Amino acid sequence: MDLYHGIPVIDNDGPKFADMLYPKGVGRGYVERDYTTSPVTMFSALPSSIKLIPESEYDARFDEQEEQKSSLEHIYLRGGKPAFVNLDQNGDGYCWKYSNVQAVMIDRLKGNQPIVRLNPHAGAAIIKGGRNEGGWCGLGAQFMRDHGVAVEGNGPGQWPLHSRDLRYDTPALRAQMALHKVSEEFVDLTRDVYDQEMTVQQHRTCLFNNQPCPSDFNWWGHSVCAIRCVRIAAGDWGI
User: Fold this and answer.
1) Could you tell me if 87 and 120 are in contact, meaning their C-beta atoms sit under 8 angstroms apart?
2) Helix ranges (DSSP H) in 58-136
3) Which end of the chain, C or N, has fewer beta carbons within 10 A?
4) What is the DSSP string of 195-213?
5) What CA dihedral angle connects 15, 16, 19 and 20, to 10 degrees?
6) Do 108 and 149 touch, CB atoms closer than 8 A?
7) pLDDT in tens, 18-46
């Protein structure tokens, strides 16, 4: 498996190493979208509107990020701890919500906004009626666009860590969630079902532009937040 600074890198060989990235028997939560029950809807911007970065520029952009320590990886590693640390789904099948809430937190960190610990369990539990069920990142993103994200905590208008108790879904919670709505995103849901993926170049362009990307991997059965396109070796790039 390819490593970058000791971190496993998701690349074209990923399917061979799915169990190294996430061991067998561990709950992940990603399931493919059922378009009969969740039909196509329109999103705010299409991937075709992204001005693509040509692969010929990858090396220069990566080198600049390394020199200036300006990538989302660098921003994450130096920012906001201990309040800002990786979100942990705690074995529940809510990776599809954690990937996009982590993206919101990283985007807030990039924008020098106040550090707020957000709780993906809230939206996932509300969507699933308190059940521990899988989904896909677009389902979680749609909820964030419509309703926002809950703050983690035990106070009024907050959602306790890893809780699936719907008693916390109060008017105060919804008011707090509305402060953290997603207003911009790239998802192409105008094409046929099996042609709706973003291309590799579109995905990498977002990452080189420091746009965190919730990403579903069918072969992995998992959804994660991608934050950087990294050079493993000359001409060899991974996430």
Assistant:
1) yes
2) 58-68, 72-78, 95-110, 120-127
3) N
4) G-SPPHHHHHHHHHTT--E
5) -110
6) no
7) 665 655 555 577 777 665 665 544 444 56
Count of positions (residues) in the chain: 239
Q: Which two tokens stand for residue 198?
A: 């973003």
> pLDDT by residue (tens digit) across 67-96?
999 999 999 998 877 778 889 999 999 999
Low pLDDT (below 70) residues in the chain: 1, 11-27, 33-48, 185-197
Task: Provide the whole-model pTM.
Answer: 0.83
| CA distances from residue 49 to 44, 46, 105, 188, 195 in whole angstroms, order as listed | 11, 6, 24, 10, 16
Lookup: tokens for 25: 């028997």
Report the first-to-last Cα separation within the chain, whole angstroms: 13
Res 192: pLDDT: 47
Task: Tell me the HSE value of 72 on the side-chain side, using a 13 A CA sphere.
Answer: 26
At position 40, the amino acid (one-letter code) is V
Residue whose pair of structure tokens reads 């369990």 in the numeric block: 121
- Given a contact cutoff of 8 angstroms between Cβ atoms, the answer to whether 76 and 227 are in contact is yes
**Amino acid at site 121:** H
Q: Show the DSSP H helices in 69-119 as ranges.
A: 72-78, 95-110
Residue 207 CA to residue 200 CA, distance in Å, equals: 11
Place of tokens 């099948």: 93
